[in-house]
Design a protein that fits this description.
Blueprint lengths: L1 H102 L9 H5 L5 H8 L12 E16 L2 E14 L6 E12 L4 E12 L1
Length: 209
């Protein structure tokens, strides 16, 4: 009887130990599973954060590239605008010099007009205006002429060839006359920006004021 009791107690202890060990192992497995789940969640969060950071960095890089491109475009446009403004200013100044030279003269300076405008006229126009006896404004050796107003309006552009509309107001009189004759003329002017010369002057309107 005692032997049987000992066996029963022993088996009970073994069963209890097995149960305790099983509970312990189950608890360890649960803890490991929880840790694995936490690690997976942390990994997913990190991947999501990394993706977001990567997207942010990419967007920031794209924004920076766009800003640099825009800045370069602004600089290029500014340079182009500056070059265009310089070209316009040079054209206007040279056309003004030509018309001042052609319109402003008296009996003493009439023959000096070519020297004032030769540099700014193409060879063809120099020949046309000063190459023979027939000149643009006829025989002005007995005439005094003054340019009272000049306006230059830029028109079309074709490569280095520019066009402008020129409105000239002037007054003139013969040496023996006491009163001035006033008039307005409108011209279409072709200008070579490369050689900085007027290449054509076409009269559109000429009227007495």
């Amino acid at each position: 009887m005692e032997r049987k009791t000992v066996i029963i107690v022993f088996l009970g202890l073994v069963a209890a130990g097995a149960l305790i060990w099983g509970c312990h192992e189950y608890h360890q497995v649960q803890v490991k599973n929880i840790k694995i789940s936490q690690i997976k969640r942390q990994k997913a969060t990190l991947l999501k954060t990394n993706a977001k950071l990567k997207g942010t960095v990419t967007a920031a890089k794209q924004d920076q590239e766009a800003a640099v491109k825009a800045q370069r475009q602004v600089q290029n446009n500014s340079a182009d605008n500056k070059a265009e403004q310089t070209s316009n200013a040079t054209m206007t100044a040279n056309i003004t010099t030509v018309f001042n030279g052609l319109y402003n003269y008296n009996q003493d300076t009439y023959q000096q007009r070519q020297a004032k405008v030769k540099r700014w006229l193409s060879p063809k126009l120099n020949q046309q205006y000063f190459g023979g006896k027939s000149q643009l404004y006829g025989d002005g050796s007995q005439v005094t002429s003054k340019l009272t107003q000049l306006r230059v309006y830029r028109q079309a552009v074709s490569g280095s060839q520019l066009r402008a509309l020129v409105v000239a107001k002037y007054q003139s009189k013969y040496a023996s006359a006491k009163t001035w004759n006033k008039g307005t003329s409108v011209y279409e002017v072709a200008y070579d920006s490369q050689n900085q010369q007027v290449t054509a002057i076409d009269s559109l309107i000429s009227k007495t004021d």
